[in-house]
Amino acid sequence: MRRPSGSPSSRDLAREAGVSQSTVSRYLNNDPRVSKQARRNIEAAMTKLGYTRNAAARTLITGHSQLIGLVVSNIANPFYPEVIEAVVATAAEHGYNVILCNTQESPELQLSYLELLVAHQVDGAILTSMMLGGDEDVMQRMLKRAPLVQVNRTVEGLLTDTVQLDNVRAGTLATEHLLSLGHTRIGYIGGNPQASTNVNRFEGYRKALTARGIEPGDDDVRHGQFTHESGYQLATEIVARPSRPTALVCGDDEVAMGVMDAVMDQGLRIPEDVAIVGFDDVPVASLRPIGLTTVRQPATEMGRRAVTLLLERIRGDRDREPVDVLLRPKLIVRRTCGGRPDDTP
Fold it and tell me: Residues annotated as region Disordered (predicted)?
């Protein structure tokens, strides 16, 4: 691929840096064999000559774009920035850049972004926003071209590596804790019913109740979106009734924050009238005015392990069986459940 007239070439760069053209090529492809001194010389020459990398040409020559796609469902949800930071940092350590896509919980937008990543010839992608019933044809087509790793949310039948919390265990853990505090009528206010995280946490909730011979009432269960607004609206429907649950398990911390506001706006006390537990352990959950009891999932570890798995696939280990990384949840006890911090298992 020819450069525009007057634009410096890699040969010009090698001459100015006093190194061979093969050394310049190795540097441009992030080869660790290039010495620190050679790197400094090449970078100084790039600055002096105004050299910019031709990404399209590099992709044609090497077969790699050095790009990774990262698809998230809602960048405003405080769980995702920690995942994003871990993915970007780990990718950068290995010479990769990240294209970030925010689906806003829209299946149509998710499909559009998947097609965009294919068009940009990413070397692989990390998908955190998968929804049950999504367009699997596009995902299968992308999987044939580049490896994928599903993180946080997963779709069965898509043969990829996965990194996720043991969400069934997490739902059970949250509910068992409320049962241990004496609650027998415990409601559930969930997120997107098409998200595996919500499906599995709800399964764990039901599992804990049925183990005690308790059948959750339909009037005490709502599913919506993983947002503050959804949590507020659904909680208002439940707690405004004369007969209400004494405790609520919430689909994630963002939902739980909305639930907390709804409970207080009804003139009720937390946890005396309604105890609340969330999932994720986002940074604001630990603030003293909030003190949200929650089930922690290790967002940084999820991001780092996802990149590691993806790079292993990109670098040639394409035929091994899919790896399923299941991370252990941890209950973090704070004030909203009415328990004591030393109740944490």
Answer: 1-35
